[in-house]
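Quick question, first post here. What does this chain look like in 3D?
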Amino acid sequence: MTVVVAAIVAVAATGCGVGRDAVSSGQTFQFVSPGGKTVITYDPPASRRPVSDVIGPDLITGNRIGLRDVRGMVVVVNVWGSWCAPCRREADDLETVYATTKASGVAFLGLNFRDDRQTARDFVRDRKVAYPSIYDYAGATLAKLTTPTSVIPTTVILDRQHRPAVVYLRAITAAELEPVVRRVAGENYSGPRQ
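> Answer (accepted):
Ran it through. Tokens below.
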């Protein structure tokens, strides 16, 4: 059900009480899965560190897209592949949450991994996925976001400063994702918005 991928991400401290094995100190986010957890929350917000800039070719257009295009917005990053059964199951849920939260300063960004480009495009069109995805067959963009032992699908909710607030190392549902996205979108933020 999951595919192990090779990649590296950048975490500072977490308030979820999981011990020293959960984080690596530094100025950028470096995620380490604490004790096999599949949902990890990083609180308080002051303890979060930003991820590296995630940028790559748009799956459909080929134009370069990334986090810099959505500065000041909460970003839900979903790592997916059309070959992944849990990814197929959660696609409608992600689209539902995107549609209901985008007016609140929330952006979604897919990260398509290890997929045939035309098959991935067909998946997006067939499922009517309205938010963009970066095409990342080799995982170079993924290496800037996830972990040495990440799973597909993975969903990362970045706060308005593009610091991980919540990471799901499994498929999600709209019922569990939407309230968390709205909570992160409601956090106090004084930086620029786009």
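The domain at 20-185 is CATH 3.40.30.10 (Glutaredoxin).
DSSP finds three helices and eight strands in the chain.
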